Amino acid sequence: MSTLAEEVAREFGSPAVMIDLDRVEANIARLQAACDGAGLRNRPHIKTHKSPVLAKLQVAAGARGLTCQTLGEAEVMTGAGLSDLLISYNLVGAHKLARLAALLRRTALTVSADHPAVVAGLAEAAAAAGRPLDVVVECDTGRGRAGVTRPREAVALARAIAQAPSLRFAGLLLYPPEGGAAATSAFLDAVRPGLAEAGLEAGIVSTGGTPNLRDLGAVAGATEHRSGTSIFNDRMMMACGAARLEDCALDVVATVVSRATATRGVLDAGSKTLTADPGGGLDGHGLIREYPQARIGKLAEEHGFLDLSACPAAPEVGTVVRVVPNHVCVVVNMVDRLVATKGGRIVGEIPVAARGLTG
Amino acid sequence: MSTLAEEVAREFGSPAVMIDLDRVEANIARLQAACDGAGLRNRPHIKTHKSPVLAKLQVAAGARGLTCQTLGEAEVMTGAGLSDLLISYNLVGAHKLARLAALLRRTALTVSADHPAVVAGLAEAAAAAGRPLDVVVECDTGRGRAGVTRPREAVALARAIAQAPSLRFAGLLLYPPEGGAAATSAFLDAVRPGLAEAGLEAGIVSTGGTPNLRDLGAVAGATEHRSGTSIFNDRMMMACGAARLEDCALDVVATVVSRATATRGVLDAGSKTLTADPGGGLDGHGLIREYPQARIGKLAEEHGFLDLSACPAAPEVGTVVRVVPNHVCVVVNMVDRLVATKGGRIVGEIPVAARGLTG
């Protein structure tokens, strides 16, 4: 009797990326329940799946709005009839601003900004579109990525947004570091008086991150949460305690193609499939469900180097396995389609419609 | 006046992957001259560019045959009219073997194998195709990836290939580790008597690797060489001395989208563009040509975290830069098209036709 992974490999080839829709639906429901329980609007981040099909499942389960990380993702979601999109990224440059104006003519949008130069560009795009653009100020409360780092900068930027005739100040975008709820709340406390003095209100106070679901609601005044990875989960989420192995809904199906020695092997999934993403310092490049003691210690482009020395029984050439990747969001972005399964059967393919649309 | 990178960003968006065809042609010519000088057939590895357009430039310059790492790459090259393909990978599993048979009906092929189970599958596919398949034995002379590790295994596998009615023993596939020419020559010396005893001859003795161009011809008895990365080069090739900065023909065009502090910035190229490939332990995730002191210290999916503390002058929000990536082969695989430039002008786009075809 064939395993499901063997059926996937036979039908779609190896390597392939498969998802378990039963687990996907359970993960979607769990996120929705967590947001409902915390009194927060659920605005899932579609960068993880890049698929309108899965976004629609999230909306059907209660999500109100979606988050996109790129304009290309927002274009794809809009084209599929999805709306209320928040683009959590500074859109900069003539090419993106022209596309933003075109998209804004089709649908209402919220975008983030962390710099006056970004606000100026957005204002021009919105003016060209002839439709007001909602803008949230991205605040850095400890992650050290993008975002204004001081409350007074947040207030100044909110004022600049409100003063632009084509823009509306819509609120604040936060991506607190793990365990950073207190610092984030303090940042918000410091911003609020300045906003009030300017006669402004943060209608949206958006938090983000799947690991932050642990203390969802701990950021005082938050109105919504953006979680991406929780729809699939991965080794990284297992490592930080945000998911169990049975919550991982996406596997890379791969085949053992070489067994040069008793302790070495090669999978046909390398850095062009699993990606070299270290998952924040994990050991190895994925967890093989059937051979958890096997270590994917190194990758070439089409080779996953296996160290089988700790395995009680080692897989042979031709053995098909399922690998839980370090980081699902980058793995999904390698393939044009996900093989969907449900109840232990293959039910079809789901296009990764926004794959590669990094701009 | 706009820079070329600014023009690319304006016309094609940011991030984009651009190549300089003048440098590409010089790199192709340099590889051809090196192979000619060493008396070796040049069989470039198309995994780096995955593009029939560029493969045809290589053939026009004198390449005899091409190397593919996946069956999907070989299908694309065949579809574009290219021939004499060597697939340097164990093809395993019913899906691949059925496709191999279909491809073999269309064109003559050479594939590698390192295990009797692989040979058995190839024999079935070739029998189904009704056309003989040339098979080379992959030998591991120190890299520790795929390949038989002992000369007597190589001979036994050569015999098994020769005995299969649908297969022809075509020779040996080698991928010597850097500086491994002597060990590889010794391996070959140990294989030859066994082959001779079996009445077999290694018509192909194929070496590979761009860093190994340094001592091209040092493997005694080699007949051909497979080099992939040399068509573009990258930071990894610079680090090992195989290329100079001016030989790097592929850049990621990216834009500074955030400057949260005086020493921090963000590029709109993250792990979904530059990839997390560490390039064999390089510091950072790419070299910014215009700001060589800037360090791309960390990546999120759409964020390249910049440490600008060592820069005499820092780029502003909106500045467009060119990044030499750590590893071009995986970067090319992220995009559907390369923006081609020549003589400082944009001349068009080149499809990465085999992108994502990892099976």
UniProtKB/TrEMBL annotation, chains A, B:
The keyword Lyase applies. InterPro entries: Ala_racemase_N, D-amino_acid_metab_enzyme, D-ser_dehydrat-like_dom, D-ser_dehydrat-like_sf, PLP-binding_barrel. The keyword Membrane does not apply. SMART domains: D-ser_dehydrat (SM01119). Keywords: Lyase. Residues 249-342 form the D-serine dehydratase-like domain. One of its GO terms (biological process) is D-serine catabolic process. It holds the Pfam family Ala_racemase_N. It comes from the Bacteria. Belongs to the DSD1 family. This is D-TA family PLP-dependent enzyme.
